Amino acid sequence: MTHPRLSLNQATIKYADLDEALAVPVAAGYESIGLWREPVQAVGVPDAVRRVADSGLRVSSLCRGGFFTIEEGPTRRAAIDDNRRALDEAAALGAPALVLVAGGLPEGSRDLIGARSRVRDALGELADHARDTGVTLAIEPLHPMYAADRAVVSTLAQALDLAADFAPEQVGVVVDTFHVWWDPALEASVRRAGAEGRIASYQVCDWVTPLPADVLLARGYPGDGHIDFAPITALVEEVGYTGDIEVEIFNQYVWDAPFADVARITAERFDALVAPHLRPIPAPVA
Amino acid sequence: MTHPRLSLNQATIKYADLDEALAVPVAAGYESIGLWREPVQAVGVPDAVRRVADSGLRVSSLCRGGFFTIEEGPTRRAAIDDNRRALDEAAALGAPALVLVAGGLPEGSRDLIGARSRVRDALGELADHARDTGVTLAIEPLHPMYAADRAVVSTLAQALDLAADFAPEQVGVVVDTFHVWWDPALEASVRRAGAEGRIASYQVCDWVTPLPADVLLARGYPGDGHIDFAPITALVEEVGYTGDIEVEIFNQYVWDAPFADVARITAERFDALVAPHLRPIPAPVA
What we know:
Oligomer: homodimer
Pfam families (chains A, B): AP_endonuc_2 (PF01261)
CATH superfamily of chain A: Divalent-metal-dependent TIM barrel enzymes
CATH architecture of chain A: Alpha-Beta Barrel
Keywords (chains A, B): Carbohydrate metabolism, Isomerase
Order of helices and strands of chain A: EHEHHEHEHEHEHHEEEHEHH
Domain Xylose isomerase-like TIM barrel (chains A, B): 27-258
Helix content of chain A: 40-55%
GO molecular function (chains A, B): isomerase activity
Protein name (chains A, B): Sugar phosphate isomerase/epimerase
């Protein structure tokens, strides 16, 4: 039995198909999973919805939408339309949030400010559909080392500024320890996010050095790196986050391990390093 | 003839000894150089002072001091003493600033806030000696991807907060495009740095993707990467910086090239991408 708020993000067992990705956390005592669109689409959304319901798992989030930085034209239109479909899929799956990766600088462009303004524009186009579907657009600030080629949203403060034009139910933020642990303004930004009701997802994984050759794969199990999960977790709790907590690890070593081992180690680390800093679980009524 | 404010940081021609490091920029028309302590110490400081004087070059900065995050004990005492010597060396060489790399988390520690507070403590111990020597302690915020293992000072705002207890002549900041270009708060922080008189050094090099296996070597010539030097340079100028502008490139490809080629390409890129955004050079009096 793992902590009831622990959710296994499907990317942590990247090579599992949807049935495996649902069976593994169930067998390991999880109650929640973070899904990705590709394995869902591989079986079709209606069928995925049935399989998720059969598993008994909650869906903590759907990954991912975004890629909003390209200039106006057919490719941008297709991206906006695809994000609308992603909201529909999240709603069908019962996911409260669609995780958004902003996108990097368009090919050949050095206009960082322009790229960031187009992220805001895209949120404006999608916010009504977010309200209609009941799914929150969850902006994930990515570590600044990805600013050029993956996400021009680099800090929690910036994500909150982008969200500020919209209701918290429409646009929120993801707090992922890997991406934000270094931020000198982290405490202030998490407090602001809590006060504004914008924390749509809290995710934990560790920052491991030396960084691997592919820095996209630099994440590790909690405890394998340099992040102190105690103060960040306690703060996210203190400011009012009550949702599931995902572990999402991109790491070739983790991906190559048996799925059941990954789920077990993830739960052990979570229970040792994260769970002690959460509010006590109310005792069941006798 | 290169731009009179261009300075070649010695690390850009890492394998040059001091004599070569002085001869190369002179031959390429530079008027300024950024020195490193190791090649200076290889010939001894008094001899280095003579050679620099003979070269006719200004010294824009000395690299580097810092490594302030270790807990109290003999190693920390040795680091503080070494920084005092570094200030003496900078003064002897005529360098206006000693560049500081804060240091990463101590081995096995996850206490980021504690490490950051020890940086502030070290500045407090060194500030009087900075005033006595006339050399500014120049805190260089490093890119957040180095927060664990190299520098717990990750943003310009944080560096300015650390400097705030001291006079600008004692403690300033380095604005290095590679480290700060991604920062959503960059404009606000540069304006604050200018208003407080704290910009001790402006350095330019580019952010090139994909990152190399060793992310310490990710820097490139201006123009080879994703940074738009125009707005950052214009802003640094606008807020009052009038000093030399260093190009400091850690990159194996650059290091393996002939020194003269590196100096020439650096000047070409600077003249094309940075110099147009500087104030005009006053015409000589006829």
